[in-house]
Design brief:
This protein has 122 residues and is of the alpha+beta class. Helix content is 20%, strand content 38%. It has helices at residues 25-31, 78-81, 85-88, 113-121, and strands at residues 2-5, 10-15, 18-23, 34-38, 45-46, 51-57, 61-65, 70-75, 97-101. Strands 1-2-3-9-8-5 form a six-stranded antiparallel beta sheet. The longest helix is centred in the C-terminal third of the chain and has 9 residues, at 113-121. The protein starts with a strand and ends with a helix.
């Protein structure tokens, strides 16, 4: 499994042509306590960089962007009942959605972990 990161603070774990997407630990710490997550609809076709949902915290509401184009294949229904999973396990059980990657070359524009760590350090 390969994991890449976007400048919008989403991560994508790639397994074959499926990507699992969520927000980074850095993003959840900036947001504070997450109280609601609006996820995209399964079956929706999305373009890289598009807003596909919303994360609401006690501090603010932020858009969720997709780092790659494709079709939404699954959403994490656990977030409906426990949105705090995005805080407690942002790169684990707090994932947001899965996407069938339509344009694998879009992954080349994303950062590896080292590059992302440097990005957030600036």
């Amino acid at each position: 499994m390969t994991i890449k990161y976007s400048e919008d603070h989403e991560w994508i774990a790639i397994e074959g042509d499926i990507g699992t997407i969520g927000i980074t630990d850095h993003a959840q710490s900036l947001l504070g306590d997450i109280v609601f997550v609006e996820l995209p609809t399964v079956g929706t076709t999305v373009e890289a960089g598009a807003g596909v949902g919303v994360v609401e915290s006690v501090k603010a509401a932020s858009d969720i962007f997709t780092p790659v184009s494709g079709d939404i294949t699954e959403v994490n229904d656990d977030l409906d009942f426990d949105p705090s999973l995005a805080n407690s396990e942002p790169t684990g059980r707090g994932w947001f959605f899965k996407i069938k990657i339509a344009v694998p070359a879009e992954l080349d524009r994303l950062m590896n972990e080292m590059a992302y760590e440097e990005f957030i350090a600036d």
